[in-house]
Amino acid sequence: MLGVLQGFAVILGIIGAGYLAAVFRVVEGEQRRVLNSTAFYVATPALLFSVLSTSDPSVILSPVILVTSLAALIVAALFVVSSRLWFRRDLASTTLGATCAGYVNSNNLGLPVAVYILGDAAYVAPLLLVQLVVFAPAVLSILESTRGNSRGFLVALGRATSNPIILGSVAGLVVALLGAQVPELVSAPVEMLGAAAIPMVLLSFGVSLRGQRALQPGTGRAAVFSAAGLKVLLMPLIAWLLAKALGLGPHEVFVATVIAALPTAQNVYNYAATYRRSETMVRDTVFLTTFASLPVIAGIAWLLG
């Protein structure tokens, strides 16, 4: 559990630094969007290229990735149904809410969880690949289509696939598939840029908390609680049931369940802030799941570990 606590402490510490920066007016109001834009268009593509170019693409064939991906799609579909029945949202908000329900923090929390609880950092690599190469392009395509593109969804899909995040991910995956070695002259500045991505997103997230308490009335709390409940409680349960149904071994069942219990990724907030869609809803969901996932993961480790 020490690794999990360390991962949470790092995240909350940087969010706290962003909040203090807003309190002391180092960063004010819309200035935080500079952090989001720089992270989205520069630092995050560099980070994803660095991570994927050194990964083993064969891990995407792991049965654990089948379970966690199916669980993510199921809870996302359940959020869409809930949105249609109980709290009608527009396409962008529904897409982001569904993404909050199934898109896990596989990097800055997933890695310490994988190392210190699951015993191997490679366990989160398959989900990281699927989220970046499959889920992210789909989400970004829908968000692009909500910008009023009159030429339709296919044009929006083309714009999304030219997004720097997707380009960085695809380039990194191609390098890994080819087994190529990136020269240090190129890899060193790319890695340095990538190292800034997560801190900038978390700082911006902390700045956004200034002046508005989380889960205030009128901010879409029904959608927040639905997405958070699906993410932290139902997704690990579905992953456990699927893993058992597919006949996975005890350790693989444990791994799939723990990974499914990880909180919503901060990347989703970065998408919402960049496209200026449902920022408050996504921010509150990320905030709530980050705290709620700790006792859930501890409980899973106690029951199945």
From TrEMBL:
Keyword terms of this UniProt record: Cell membrane, Membrane, Transmembrane, Transmembrane helix, Transport
One Pfam family per UniProt: Mem_trans
Record-annotated membrane-spanning stretches: 6-27, 34-53, 59-81, 93-117, 123-143, 164-180, 192-210, 222-242, 254-273, 285-304
InterPro entries: Mem_transp_PIN-like, Na+/solute_symporter_sf
Compartment(s): Cell membrane
Gene Ontology CC annotation, any one: plasma membrane
GO terms of biological process kind: transmembrane transport
Protein's membrane topology: Multi-pass membrane protein
Family to which this protein belongs: Belongs to the auxin efflux carrier (TC 2.A.69) family.
Matches recorded under PANTHER family: AUXIN EFFLUX CARRIER FAMILY PROTEIN, SLR1864 PROTEIN
Protein's UniProt name: AEC family transporter
